[in-house]
Write the structure tokens for this entry.
Amino acid sequence: MMTADAAGPDEAGFAGLGLRPELLEALTGLGYEEPTPIQREAIPPLLERHDVLGQAATGTGKTAAFALPLLHQFSRSADGSGSGPAALVLVPTRELAEQVSQAVDSYGRGLGVRVLPVYGGTPIGRQVQVLRRGVDIVVGTPGRVLDHLGRETIDLSAVRTVVLDEADEMLDMGFAEDIEAILDETPAERQTVLFSATMPPRIDAIARKHLREPVRIQTGRPQLDPGELPKVKQSAYLVARAHKPAALGRILDIEAPTAAIVFCRTREEVDELTEVLNGRGYRAEALHGGLSQDQRDRVMGRLRAGTTQLLVATDVAARGLDIEQLTHVVNYNVPSAPEAYVHRIGRVGRAGRQGAAITLAEPREQRMLTTIERLTRQPIAIEDVPSVAELRARRLARTREAIEHTLAGDVTDLDRFRGVLAELTAARDIEEVALAAIKMLHEASGGDGDDTEIPPVARTARDRTRERPGRDFGGRDSRGGRDDRGRPARGRPANAGSARLFLGIGRRAGLRPQDMVGAIAGESGLNARDIGAIEIQDRFSLVEVPERDADMVIAALRGATIRGRKATVRRERPYN
Ligand code: AMP
């Protein structure tokens, strides 16, 4: 059974929130079918120009929640330049500055909005030129924005809205004072929006000081009755965005589902992934709001008949579907709200059958996983993406099983091949002939496939509490900077469970602790909280990171620039 629900932005969708047509068009183009819970709650008060204090982690759709109202209110002044940006979004890392700026750009394309990401580690001159020509929205890290203020290359006097995104991360990285200084340069009557994954007292203090009667929004607190939760095996794989299609292919190879539904966020993602999976030999079909009822019925028919193995769908398209033979639910992204997660996984494990729910999470989305675990009070096991060796072993096992299956069946059916076998073994060893036949079967069913390893990503503290070196690891002071205790005494071994890295860049290049934290968090995905003591000398610096992440951090920093330079990065040698 399927409900004839709406396909694009309609009354229940983005149009119902009162967003202007150019934005609705952009959202349809991006394949967004309906607002996420945080968008539904935050957009109306933001359009009314209220201040908003929102608790939301990455993956909830918070970027669009603040970006769409900014864009809705956008109007180009007659001369088009000269008055400085109308909105300023502050983010903790350059990676996020790029991401948010790209998102704003893609939503605002029909409006001709000029967005500029502003972060350290890149030449400032080019940013100055663009700022001079005129920019409507600046998305920047606090350090670099302050830099521009100091040089008087940015004018914040026309700013109407300031967004503090991932405010807790910014405080963790020692940006509290920079943020204060920047806010001081913006008009007092501005609208202020603060999003943070957690709400520690320090965030509350900032909100009390800088937000006026904010509308408080908190998603992810649904009333869940644990009795309603299905009993399914839940697991998650942490994987960088670029490796997700390959990782999904591998996971499916290992899991070998009879029938699975793979949930995506957007129509575009559905189409792309369907293509990838078909290319990998799966029988996958797309199911999204753009299909007619007739087309959907046909897809469902093929799934029920077993001609289709995988359904790749958006939430909207899958609403109301009841598929008996489902063995797996796969979340290609962490769902935007715990309710969506629970709803999705409720489709398997029905009527005492076994089912599995698998989630692919990008490093930044781990917090959302923890929230879901806490609310459902059910564990989600973090698994490693299958290695090439595991995958090969599993495929060989499947080839063996296929042969065993044939041998266990009607062996008289094999008689017609006896003549071929006799001819082949006249001049050859029978074992060799058998090996060749196994090889052919193995290759025909997919063979060894891809053989590049998918690099592991850093896990947050939730997954390694036992290894975590404890409070004095970081040694940050109450302002979010680092105190003397936190210095890694050179020559002495690093704290237990941590490794000390040497970077060939120091104070002379203008390096500050927050640049180091920003570079490591931004490039490697390591949580800022997991970065330990930092020591900055004139020409080099030392930083402690958890031992298990050390090689990954080194690899991530190797191609990167820090304050505009490429620096040597390696483990500290004892004689440094
Ligand atoms: P964020 O939590 O802002 O980092 O967003 C997470 C991801 O969700 C991004 O890839 C967005 O493009 C996507 N996204 C945001 N809102 C929606 C929506 N309403 N429908 C589908 N995808 C969305």
